[in-house]
Amino acid sequence: MPSKDSTPPPYQSAAKISDSQCFPQYTASLKCLEEFNSDKSKCQEHFDVYKECKKKEREARLERNKSRSLFS
Asked: Which UniProt keywords apply (predicted)?
């Protein structure tokens, strides 16, 4: 098993769900599914909140990246 000091993965910018601002909404969705034996209809509100969070997170990322150019 490699140590934590080994070479980092090639894609440093690859996001982890645990680094997301939406991680609490994500875990709430999973907990809901667990609580209701994977009955998605009982967890729709959690899914909607998570989806909205991810949408805002994506919009913010696009806005930040707007000023950056690969060709300048």
From this structure: Disulfide bond
